[in-house]
Design a protein that fits this description.
The protein is of the alpha+beta class and 335 residues long. The protein has 10 helices and 19 strands. It has 3 domains: 106 residues, no CATH class; 141 residues, Jelly Rolls, CATH 2.60.120.1440; 71 residues, Phage tail protein beta-alpha-beta fold (3-Layer(bab) Sandwich).
């Protein structure tokens, strides 16, 4: 089955997509899972649009009348395209569905179009350092994207939306809620005043690692019957959360294992090859296949400076006496 190409604006007002985000077991789940798997650009679009849909589903702001009129014009245009089926009869069922989406769609327009945004996306094996409007700094890891408003004034929160992995060095401000720095991800929000931390959404579990200062974590649960957990982290801690499991874990870690990438180094501290598999797939774009599952439990210690893919694979072959075969975008690892 061939899927269409959608941009973020298309997805956030697509009825089938919205239903799938809010109910992953919907009838069209197979279509969107295939769409997700086709290439990295589609995956990034889906992740951003999914985050918007979730925010919109809980939106509290209301667009202005002018904004409503503009989006109504878009809806009328969409209705005109759905006016007749093959028999030439007006498709009232489709029109009803479009009308029912009105509030959601105008909220989408309000949330997407009313502020000038800066958006940055990195490719595989690419790291980008960005200066944010308040003087804070973010290092964006490979295969990641970040979005934030072009200007932050004194009356607004400092907000960024992240997909992938980034390291934040947040400029300290006066202790006022209105100036908190907030990182939004699909699974959790990170709220700080001034600190240094890493956020990674690449894996099934979203992970936050705190190096300095203090952050507040707000876990997002889809169930309306449960209260979202909120708690504070202290330096040296890692929080992991998976919405699919609805559970979170806080542990003490060697933070350099999770943050050294920003300095062009990979640090290993009893790191299993299963974790290294994730690093290679997320940062270099290769699928990693181990011929024996026993290899996944082997552990690494030490560090690799300036770790391009060839250097990383060569080190693995030497340390564990492995053979690594490259076939297209797949790496086959065997003893």
């Amino acid at each position: 089955m061939r899927t269409e190409n959608y941009n973020i604006d298309d997805l956030v007002v697509n009825e089938s997509f919205i239903e799938w985000v809010l109910d992953p077991e919907s009838d069209d789940s197979g279509y969107w899972e295939q769409y997700l798997s086709e290439d990295i650009n589609k995956s990034l679009h889906v992740k951003k649009a999914r985050s918007l849909v979730i925010q919109l589903n809980n939106a509290k702001e209301t667009p202005t009348e002018n904004q409503k009129e503009k989006i109504l014009g878009n809806i009328h245009s969409q209705i005109s395209q759905e006016k007749a089926d093959k028999s030439g009869v007006i498709n009232w069922a489709m029109i009803s569905k479009i009308a029912a989406m009105f509030v959601f769609v105008i909220s989408a327009y309000f949330l997407i179009d009313t502020n000038d945004k800066n958006e940055y996306t990195t490719g595989y094996n690419e790291i980008q350092t960005l200066d944010l409007p308040d003087g804070s700094q973010v290092v964006l890891n490979s295969n990641s994207s970040i979005e934030y408003a072009s200007n932050w004034d004194e009356s607004t929160e400092r907000e960024v939306w992240l997909e992938g992995e980034a390291y934040f060095k947040v400029r300290k401000t006066k202790v006022t809620d209105s100036k908190k720095f907030v990182v939004y991800t699909d699974d959790l929000n990170v709220k700080v005043l001034g600190t240094q931390f890493n956020v990674n959404t690449h894996e099934e579990n979203t992970a936050v690692v705190l190096e300095e200062g203090k952050v507040d974590i707000e876990i997002k649960l889809n169930s309306t019957d449960e209260i979202n957990p909120n708690f504070s982290m202290t330096p040296g801690q890692k929080t992991s959360f998976s919405d699919s499991a609805t559970e979170y874990e806080v542990s003490d870690v060697n933070t350099s294992v999770y943050t050294s990438w920003k300095d062009g180094t990979i640090v290993f501290d009893g790191t299993p090859l299963s974790d290294l598999k994730n690093i290679i797939e997320n940062n270099y774009g290769y699928q990693v296949v181990f011929e024996s599952e026993n290899l996944l439990s082997k552990k690494l210690d030490g560090k690799i400076d300036n770790p391009n893919l060839e250097k990383l694979l060569s080190s693995l072959e030497t340390i564990f006496n492995l053979q690594i075969e490259k076939k297209g975008k797949q790496l086959i690892i065997k003893e």
